[in-house]
């Protein structure tokens, strides 16, 4: 178990720094809206929706009903349903733990689970669980720290919600540098830009996800061949 936790901690280091500072940004905004530390901890524990939590702050200020908030949350986070498609079988094998894995599958956690390889001697199910749990703990800690800081320090929070966007950029760049095949990333970028131009900033996420999935399905055969070639090249490099 110790090796599992150590491996998961190393894997989640990029998210640790990103979630701490992004969580702090959320806590600051929530504190400015008049909600204290307990609210920050509760929302980050129960909602745990990253960018959606920033939107929730504006919802609270606007006095929207719980039903409206729930529907908006569903619409904004519907992209997570696509994430789960690639982990259906693995999550099924995790028994009751699958419920938490489904709940905790944020953008960053999904990114890590897709890109990381389970170290030798480590149980994959426990490894995945540790990654998901650590990521949420980082987020909760950041949110609480931000809320405390917001209650003690008064300053202008304009633009602080850009922290989430910055985190996405860092993770994308890191994966771009590590990956040999950049086709999936280019497909996602192209789909996002085209859908942004067609549907606008408020409606492009779902269409871009759908088009990305469809394009990647069409290119699956080519991607599989490229992946096998990359594995062969890597094995040859290791031998040398």
From TrEMBL:
Principal location listed in the UniProt entry: membrane
Pfam families: AzlC
Keyword flag Manganese: no
Subcellular location(s) per record: Cell membrane
Keywords: Cell membrane, Membrane, Transmembrane, Transmembrane helix, Transport
Transmembrane intervals: 12-30, 37-60, 66-88, 127-153, 159-177, 189-219
Keyword Transmembrane helix carried by entry: yes
GO cellular component: plasma membrane
Family under the similarity heading: Belongs to the AzlC family.
The name this protein goes by in its record: AzlC family ABC transporter permease
Organism annotation: Eubacterium callanderi
């Amino acid at each position: 178990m110790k090796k599992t936790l150590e491996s998961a901690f190393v894997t989640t280091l990029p998210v640790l720094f990103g979630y701490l500072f992004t969580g702090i940004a959320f806590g600051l905004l929530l504190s400015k809206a008049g909600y204290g530390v307990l609210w920050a901890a509760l929302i980050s524990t129960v909602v745990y929706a990253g960018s959606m939590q920033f939107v929730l702050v504006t919802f609270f200020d606007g006095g929207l009903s719980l039903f409206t908030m729930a529907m908006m949350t569903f619409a904004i986070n519907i992209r997570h349903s696509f994430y789960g498609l690639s982990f259906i079988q693995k999550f099924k094998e995790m028994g009751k733990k699958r419920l938490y894995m489904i709940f905790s599958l944020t953008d960053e956690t999904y990114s890590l689970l897709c890109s990381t390889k389970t170290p030798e001697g480590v149980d994959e199910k426990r490894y995945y669980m540790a990654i998901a749990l650590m990521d949420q703990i980082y987020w909760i800690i950041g949110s609480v720290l931000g809320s405390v800081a917001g209650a003690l320090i008064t300053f202008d929070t304009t633009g602080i919600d850009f922290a989430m966007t910055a985190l996405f950029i860092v993770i994308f760049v890191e994966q771009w540098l590590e990956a040999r095949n950049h086709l999936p990333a280019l497909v996602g970028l192209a789909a996002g830009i085209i859908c942004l131009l067609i549907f606008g900033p408020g409606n492009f996420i779902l269409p871009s996800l759908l088009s990305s999935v469809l394009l990647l399905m069409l290119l699956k055969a080519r991607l599989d061949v490229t992946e096998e070639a990359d594995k062969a090249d890597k094995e040859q490099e290791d031998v040398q």
